[in-house]
Amino acid sequence: MTSNQSRPPLGSPKLTFSADAFFDTQEAPTGLEKKRRQAQQFVERHSSEGRKVVLVTSGGTTVPLEQNVVRFLDNFSAGTRGATSAEYFLAAGYAVIFMHRQHSLSPYTRHYSHTTNPFLDLLSEPAEEDSKDGSSPITVLPQHSSALKPVLHNYHSARKAGTLLRLTFVTVTDYLFMLRELSQVMQPLGKRGMYYLAAAVSDFYVPSQKTPEHKIQSGKGSLMIEMDQVPKVLKPMVQKWAPEGFIVSFKLETDEDLLIPKARNALERYGHQVVVGNELNRRKYEVVFVERISDGNFKESWIRLDPQQDNSVLGKAGEKEIEEDIVRNLEERHEQWIKSAQS
Ligand code: PAZ
């Protein structure tokens, strides 16, 4: 990074809005080809076995400020919505490509996050005499086993069926390249492919050409960062990458008055199927589905849980999660979408 006294600000003063320009000028992440191959095999297998496939994006993206990254910008998302939704999609019979931020929450293991529910707290130590030769197994404390059993069962079922493919990203650039690649891999699924874009993606980035190689030095006064706008990729996604797919984007706002106008605007501009809107502090118990009925006409439907319920603690047995209703609603819409192809 740089001080505003001696060096030009980071970022290009010219705004690079177009997706083509972005992909032409930024470098694809290493390992992209391997991820493409994994996804392709996964899609071919599940498509031939008659499963619908959903791409779930989850977690936040980073914006590196140096090429040898010491500092980066990030956002709040832990990946709860994506990881939770992936579980409900798996339960509904979908094969799930879970494209998530490295180290963010994952389906099943999310119930035992190291901060809210550390897994070591669930285990009992073997008696000292039994543990000497390591013969006694470590066991789950009885008070935790009824909550753990269904999670473990579903985790093993998904592993056995091979219905969950996890692929990671870190930066916003990784995210955009992966989204393009995976959408194209899923294109042959046609209407049987769903795209559930729940990741919190940065709107701004520093192009690699403008990112300093080494750690930004302090001592030269304040720091100015100029960032370019990240291209809006929903348009090429709808028009080119996944033209028949059922595409669901998410819209997060902190000013609730903006939620519906911005969701409508996105549908009008990009032409995809649904926007799920949520306000930051109510996102765990209130979302709105916005769809376009005809030119200039939209329909909104809300899902609300009881806000008194404590949705803040992960994995509390028996607790209703809003993602269950979101996924059920979208599964129905997706079925309609598939049927509309047949009629
Ligand atoms: O990851 P999380 O569960 O903490 O948050 C989920 C969310 C708010 C990131 C998601 O519901 C969402 O709205 N994603 C899109 C964000 C955006 O407007 O770019």
UniProtKB/TrEMBL annotation:
Q: Name one GO biological process term.
A: coenzyme A biosynthetic process
Signal peptide region: none
Q: Which GO terms describe its molecular function?
A: catalytic activity
Which InterPro entries has this protein been placed in? CoaB-like_sf, DNA/pantothenate-metab_flavo_C
Residues forming the DNA/pantothenate metabolism flavoprotein C-terminal domain are 183-283
- Tell me which family the UniProt entry assigns to this protein: Belongs to the PPC synthetase family.
Q: What's the protein called, per UniProt?
A: DFP-domain-containing protein
The species is Meira miltonrushii
